[in-house]
Amino acid sequence: MAITLFVPRDTSALSMGADDVVQALKFQCQDLTDDVTIVRNGSRGLFYLEPLVEVLTPKGRVAYGPVQIEDVESLLAQGLLNGNSDHPLYLGLTEEIPYLAKQQRLTFSRAGIIDPININDYIEHEGFSGLSKALAMFEQGSDNGQQKIVDEIKTSGLRGRGGAAFPTGIKWQTVLDAKSTSEAQQKYIVCNADEGDSGTFSDRLLMEADPFSLIEGMIIAGLAVGANQGYIYLRSEYPQANIILEQAINTAYQQNFLGNNIQQSGQKFDLEVRIGAGAYICGEETSLLESLEGKRGLVRAKPPLPAIEGLFGQPTIVNNVISLATIPTILAQGAQYYQDFGVGRSRGTLPFQLAGNIKQGGLVELAFGTTLAELINDFGAGSYSGVPLKAIQVGGPLGAYLPENQWATELDYEAFAKIDAVLGHGGIVAFDDTVDMTAQARFAMEFCVAESCGKCTPCRIGSVRGVEVINKMTKAQQQSENSAEELAELNTLLVDLCDTMVDGSLCAMGGMTPIPVRSIMNHFSDDFVATADKFNAKEIN
Amino acid sequence: MTTDEINYKIQQIVDNKKNLPGALLPILHDIQHEFGFIPEQAISIVAYSLNQSDAEIFGVISFYAHFRMKQTGRHVIEICRGEACQSMGSGALEAAAQSQLNIEYNQTTKDNNFTLEPVYCLGNCACAPSVKVADKVYGRMNSEKFTKLTDTLATYKINVGELA
């Protein structure tokens, strides 16, 4: 009998020992009369259960996890291959695991289900149906096919998932309308895969679990605006995503989904992965373009917008991985279907990423409008350490730290803006009660020191001064005599410094670094500098 | 490798990629992949071939954390310092790793086995804290697991015959 097992090959599963589990399974199954195939799928995003081993049964896929190498023998002895429920690691049908069943998966609908580099698997799971719809628009309407695609994206209400939340359809319209200055009428599609924010991994998971959806989204973007060259700018910290993307792109070329005359449609699109080199700032779109051009990643002043003068001075769409990977769903299911998810002006779904000190970390794709409390309690199941949670940082290193009384805020762009926070790329990092809030504020500034591109003074110098001021506050507090007055003065200085950075920085790096600092000053004032003795004395000097 | 051989190799790498649009980063990646770092003489070879100045090439190399101009130890261990890892005790892990290896960040152990580097986010935030060695990420790292990891990495297979 033929038996199919699934063990993920995404970075998180591998980091928890998935390869060892595969080796053990192969070794222990080699003498069986049954024919056992192990598919290396992507992760479902239930990282607290990785490595998750699944077996295909007549009822559906049955899951076991987290499986360690020493569990393999007993799993096999207790009927793993038949999907038996006798083992303590038995989780039942994968689709019925509450963490997964409660999600609204659109962009991640195939993640963990298919073999990421098997194009037939992708096609069998409705892959490329968005592209077919897009190509059909050209056949029917001849000259306005491009406009039809862009209109579809506009109607869907999709906003860029990279963090700035700019309406994707409007960006595309600008590129469609822009005139290329080159004779070749060159325009570009650039995928920003420089996911540098701590606590975010949805781009990585998408590229490792379902790379064809990103490729498909980029081809559609190319068709929509008349661009036939695409680049995926991938950070060097993601080697596994690189391997999987390269394999997928090669296959897409072989199967004529990339290159000349895509599926005999007369359309052309080329795609290449470019690797970054460890600079957080290159996640900022203009700095990313500089880097792609082979320069230091210094931000450009805007205007001109990249949509008008982007890569090599030509009109360029720069979109995040998730934005692009959502495009096929919008075209396949229709703009209205997508638009029906969400609240207010935040339409569709966002893959939230639960990370840090959380018991059940992972990827949760839900429509906008849920709350942090729901995510943390219903999905995350509280802190990993067992100590109560104290602060949640949303939106990466430049996002605010939220105290418990803000956890009921609806997760939508406008609601977050109202409380001086940002949703960013949907990264959620939980901290338990042992966190030193002064150290976190100081780290925000320190991170900006390390990662500023250096082009503008508020960011380059402001961040250095920020670290200094917080250090001085710490010192002043330790020398308790007359410190109250000095602390108050330093506090004013820090507030001024934050204002200067917000108002004077060229890009979001300097402009947003004060967000975490201010949130700590406002909401955790009792803790700010109060726990100074936890600092390593050597670091302060 | 002699200097001439190194120069030849660098020139080959440059010639392979120099016609790509925005060729510099791919070229630098290839050079670092070949040698483990970017040899000093690469600067003028690359600059000449791309019709740029030495200063421009050096400016790019020094801008990016990934590029280095010095040889590392046999294994480069990167410890993630992102907030998610911090919330799970990466600070204590950093301290333990530094004291165990008796080096600070961006230093190499005397036996040339390990170089320690900070990294800001490996995207493994739900299984924090994380450490990366070459292309492999290790999740839920702690000081005991770190000791085991370095022990495994420092173990060589030597055939008895070779000892003689």
TrEMBL record, chain A:
<dbReference type="InterPro" id="IPR011538">
    <property type="entry name" value="Nuo51_FMN-bd"/>
</dbReference>
<keyword id="KW-0408">Iron</keyword>
<dbReference type="Pfam" id="PF01512">
    <property type="entry name" value="Complex1_51K"/>
</dbReference>
<dbReference type="InterPro" id="IPR001949">
    <property type="entry name" value="NADH-UbQ_OxRdtase_51kDa_CS"/>
</dbReference>
<keyword id="KW-0411">Iron-sulfur</keyword>
<dbReference type="InterPro" id="IPR037225">
    <property type="entry name" value="Nuo51_FMN-bd_sf"/>
</dbReference>
<dbReference type="InterPro" id="IPR036249">
    <property type="entry name" value="Thioredoxin-like_sf"/>
</dbReference>
<protein>
    <recommendedName>
        <fullName>NADH-quinone oxidoreductase subunit F</fullName>
    </recommendedName>
</protein>
<feature type="domain" description="NADH-ubiquinone oxidoreductase 51kDa subunit iron-sulphur binding">
    <location>
        <begin position="438"/>
        <end position="483"/>
    </location>
</feature>
<dbReference type="InterPro" id="IPR019575">
    <property type="entry name" value="Nuop51_4Fe4S-bd"/>
</dbReference>
<dbReference type="InterPro" id="IPR037207">
    <property type="entry name" value="Nuop51_4Fe4S-bd_sf"/>
</dbReference>
<keyword id="KW-0479">Metal-binding</keyword>
<keyword id="KW-0004">4Fe-4S</keyword>
<comment type="similarity">
    <text>Belongs to the complex I 51 kDa subunit family.</text>
</comment>
<dbReference type="Pfam" id="PF10589">
    <property type="entry name" value="NADH_4Fe-4S"/>
</dbReference>
UniProtKB/TrEMBL annotation, chain B:
<dbReference type="InterPro" id="IPR028431">
    <property type="entry name" value="NADP_DH_HndA-like"/>
</dbReference>
<dbReference type="Pfam" id="PF01257">
    <property type="entry name" value="2Fe-2S_thioredx"/>
</dbReference>
<protein>
    <recommendedName>
        <fullName>NADH-quinone oxidoreductase subunit E</fullName>
    </recommendedName>
</protein>
<dbReference type="InterPro" id="IPR036249">
    <property type="entry name" value="Thioredoxin-like_sf"/>
</dbReference>
<keyword id="KW-0411">Iron-sulfur</keyword>
<dbReference type="InterPro" id="IPR002023">
    <property type="entry name" value="NuoE-like"/>
</dbReference>
<comment type="similarity">
    <text>Belongs to the complex I 24 kDa subunit family.</text>
</comment>
<keyword id="KW-0479">Metal-binding</keyword>
<keyword id="KW-0001">2Fe-2S</keyword>
<keyword id="KW-0408">Iron</keyword>
<dbReference type="InterPro" id="IPR041921">
    <property type="entry name" value="NuoE_N"/>
</dbReference>
